Amino acid sequence: MQGVTLHYAYCNIVMPPKKKYTIRIRMWVDEQSGPFLGIGRVVLLEKIRETGSITNAAKSIKMSYRQAWQLVEDMNKRSIEPLVEKILGGKNGSGAFLTKAGELAIKKFYKLESEIKSFIEKKSKKVAF
User: Fold this and answer.
1) Residue 129 domain flag
2) Distance CA 129, CA 111 (A)
3) What gap in Å lies between CA 44 and CA 104, rounded to an integer?
């Protein structure tokens, strides 16, 4: 009888459900003097490539031209080569375009982000508290 009681008590213990956790990150690439690239700056670069204009790129992501221009200047300063160059005047008007360095920066950023996310996904499967 004693064995039955112990078995009954064991079967009726309510185990708390196992919680699942995930890890989230936001990646920044810093240069000695400060932030160089983050997802917001990369999106700005992509919009400049898409629109051919810092003004239109800024509008499309609801950012002021002044802030967009400051970010472009900042990235250009911190990069080995300029990522964005302006086109001044001319018969087609002014605008901006991504340099080869700008295109490469976008590719490298997404590749690095993908590698880090893959690592984080693996670690997330093992997280327990």
Assistant:
1) no
2) 31
3) 15
Cα 87 off chain centre by = 28
Give how far the C-alpha of residue 86 lies from the chain's centroid of Cα atoms, to the nearest Å: 25
Q: Which amino acid is at 45?
A: L
Count of domains forming the chain: 1
Which pTM does this prediction carry?
A: 0.80
Residue 21 lies in a domain: yes
Instruction: Give the model's pLDDT for residue 89.
Output: 74
pLDDT tens-digit map of 17-66? 778 888 888 999 999 999 999 999 999 999 999 999 999 999 999 999 99
Contact 53, 102 (CB under 8 A): no
**Domain extent for 20:** 2-124
Q: Please, what sign has the CA dihedral across residues 55, 57, 62, 65?
A: negative
